[in-house]
Amino acid sequence: MRFESIETLINSVLATYRCPECESQTNKNNIEILWIAWTSVNLDIICPKCHTHSLFASQMLQMNINLDKFKNTLNKNLKKISDQEIVSLNKDLKKDKINVEDLFE
User: Which of 1, 2, 24, 60 might form a disulfide with 49, Cβ 3.0–4.6 angstroms?
Assistant: First the structure.
């Protein structure tokens, strides 16, 4: 397993982890790597506030994706929206007194 993969995993944990007991975030000093083998990583995350231990198991997969090819494929499959469709949608929303943000609630 590459170091960059483990570093990415740790950074992701740091950005998203919240203690299940007290909702506190953790830091690098409170993450212990218990086990690494092939594509598996097991971590013990210790809450700095309440000292709760959270066991974390992860499977790391390497994906070789050609991003340019992926973007081109995605762009080919996207439907283009015309200016007239936007104007029509705007008129319909105003007619029904609906705000665009209301559509996403």
Answer: 24
